[in-house]
Automatic annotation (TrEMBL):
Keywords: Hydrolase. InterPro entries: Amidohydrolase (IPR017439), Bact_exopeptidase_dim_dom (IPR036264), Peptidase_M20 (IPR002933), Peptidase_M20_dimer (IPR011650). This is Amidohydrolase. SUPFAM superfamilies: Bacterial exopeptidase dimerisation domain, Zn-dependent exopeptidases. It comes from Spirosoma flavum. Pfam families: M20_dimer (PF07687), Peptidase_M20 (PF01546). Residues 232-313 form the Peptidase M20 dimerisation domain.
């Protein structure tokens, strides 16, 4: 979220203009009506005690990608109780709830469920102390360090709110609780599932929202390329193991991996055009067990970020070339050359201009003046996969909205310290302002009403 930090420093609007709980900002004579939007706000905040309790429960019980069994059960039970047609176990743990409500657009709204293998350091009373055992046997701490607990809470709050005002709108609402956004695999897993293909209607519009470490009450919704494409890949360097005292009898994969990690950065610094955004990050190195044993293999986990397909190819080609060169320089036979395994991937998020305009025409009525950002914010090098729910469709129209969920006092304190934001995504200090829970439900419901067929309007 470094892009947020750079942007906030340039804000024309003083942070004192933001409020932890935003006030209604209405414009007469537009759809949906001011009366309906006021009702939405009242319903969202009336439900806040239940929603905050739900959020705290989800935060205390985080689950990693494709392991979201408990979270999925909560979502499924709630949607069934509200009368949605529910399908579970999609893409392993995904849930879809469908509410058909007469003629009108089919609108899909996604909330992601998974947490991260990060140890929480917030000190909150409801902080996560959970750990999870990975398939490789390692046990790691886990927490919601990217706000997905809020996303699930928003989804369920929106489900109840939209059901309660069912007489006010027409169309079909499709709510998607998606697994495994963090490994960038969950959306495609759902989209390729036979249950999804058979039972979930193709949407005219897809919406999703994400928490951000900027003031509660502030919303960012911009057209065009908003987030980068990404690839996750593993490279296994293979060698010949042996005793640490006799390196001449081995082919040391740790040395090979170390050489590769340093050389990978030359792909960015010497092969990529400096004016073309690209990131190559090594997030994990795993090798060996003992001090005096040279292992037979070393695993390097790599992440790419890119905006153009030719940049993506350059990154893959560069890593492959470096791996092969290291194998040659270490005298390895072809049978021991490094193995590249491609895992999750996602294409850049490109918000549809017409849909963004439609949604913003509604949001500008409820977001305080100066707190709805519709231009001037740079493309983030973070990535998302929600749009892969619809990318293979003939019609692929989507909008990804950022909702501020940082307490104003913490933002102001951070600014005094020279920081743009008080905490960061994917960090143990990440938190969500509890005032942002009903606020997110309100914004999500307002966005949906902006694209569904609304029955009532201002006189």
């Amino acid at each position: 979220m470094a892009s947020f930090q750079a942007f906030l420093k340039k804000l024309k609007y003083p942070l004192l203009g933001f409020f932890a709980v935003p006030l209604l900002w209405s414009v007469a004579g537009a759809q949906p009506s001011d009366v309906l939007l006021t009702k939405v706000r009242q319903l969202a905040y009336t439900d806040s005690v239940r929603l905050v309790a739900l959020f705290k429960d989800l935060h205390t019980h985080p689950e990693l990608g494709f392991m979201e069994v408990r979270t999925a059960e909560i979502v499924s039970k709630e949607l069934k109780s509200l009368g949605y047609q529910v399908y579970s176990g999609i893409g392993k743990t995904g849930v879809v709830g469908i509410l058909k409500n007469g003629d009108g657009p089919i609108v899909m709204f996604r909330g992601d469920m998974d947490a991260l293998p990060v140890k929480e350091t917030t000190g909150l009373v409801y902080a996560s102390t959970a750990t999870v055992k990975l398939p490789d046997g390692n046990e790691v701490p886990t927490m919601h360090a990217c706000g997905h607990d809020a996303h699930v809470t928003w989804l369920l709050g929106i489900a109840k709110l939209m059901k309660s005002i069912q007489q006010e709108w027409q169309g079909t609402l499709v709510l998607v609780a998606q697994p495994a956004e963090e490994p960038i695999m969950g959306a495609r897993a759902m989209r390729e599932d036979s249950t999804f293909i058979k039972h979930v209607p193709l949407p005219d519009y897809l919406l999703a929202m994400h928490t951000g470490p900027f003031p509660t009450g502030m919303v960012m919704n911009l057209a065009g390329t908003r987030m980068a494409g990404t690839d996750q890949l593993d490279v296994t360097f293979r060698g010949i193991g042996g005793h640490g005292s006799s390196p001449q009898t081995t082919k040391d994969p740790i040395i090979m991996a170390s050489e590769a990690i340093l050389q990978y950065q030359t792909v960015i610094s010497r092969s990529n055009d400096p004016q073309t955004p690209a990131v190559l990050t090594v997030g994990s190195v795993q090798a060996g067990q003992d001090n005096n044993v040279i292992p037979a293999s070393a695993l390097v986990k790599i992440n790419f970020r890119w905006l153009k397909p030719e940049t993506r190819k350059l990154l893959f080609d560069g890593v492959s070339r470096i791996d092969s060169g290291i194998a040659v320089s270490n005298g390895l036979p072809m049978g021991l050359y490094p193995i590249m395994k491609k895992k999750g991937y996602s294409f850049p998020v490109v918000n549809d201009s017409a849909l963004v305009s439609k949604v913003n025409s509604t949001l500008q009525k409820v977001v305080k003046k100066g707190s709805l950002i519709t231009s001037g914010f740079p493309t983030a090098m973070g990535s998302e996969d929600f749009h892969h729910l619809v990318l293979d469709n003939k019609k692929s129209v989507y909008d990804f909205i950022f909702v501020g969920t940082a307490p104003l006092d913490m933002v102001l304190a951070a600014r005094k310290e020279g920081k743009a934001v008080p905490f960061s995504n994917h960090n143990g200090n990440y938190m969500v302002d509890l005032a942002g829970i009903p606020w997110g439900v309100q914004i999500g419901a307002d966005a949906l009403l902006g694209v569904l067929k609304v029955k009532q309007s201002n006189p």
